[in-house]
Amino acid sequence: MRVIVILFCLGCSLFGQELKPIDIDFCDALQHPEQYSGQMVRFRAELHFGRHFYIREGQCGPIALSYPSDSDVKPKPPFDLIRNDVFYKTREFALQNISPPDSKDKRVVSVTMEGRFDSVFSLNKNSKVVRKGKGFGPLGLYDNRLVLRSFEDACVISPGKDNDCVPLEE
After folding, report:
1. CB within 8 Å of 43: residues ≥ 6 apart
2. Residue 4 lies in a domain
3. N- to C-terminal Cα distance for the chain?
4. Which candidate among 50, 58, 64, 66 keeps its CA 20 to 30 Å from the CA of 43?
């Protein structure tokens, strides 16, 4: 009986560790995607919407944003999307503020995101970076994606305001 309890506890702790994200820099993840592919990550970046949601930060990106329930997400993650107030407010703001990416007067939403980072790049057995498979998002255009678990906090950056980040309205 004692062995069963120990194995159960060990299994629970290993499962919990899988979902604990690594805090990373978004641009670093794009410079070294093979190091983060398949891992739970947390980073801050801008959420944009064109024909679909995508993520970028300054000159870094874009990468695709997917939900765990999307049919093209494989393997399926061991988590569901957390649909809280931050998720709904962030998504609504991005949908209402569609403008060309190079627009000088565009307000953007900056958000801390958590999820599984996927990349077409990986390390082979000789520790060389290799490309595997097609890309992500529409027509496979993106080399990387975030399978979203949650938005943790969000704020709005308006042009000409010294990049001050103002919390989304309540």
Report:
1. 23, 24, 25, 26, 29, 112, 113
2. no
3. 52
4. 50
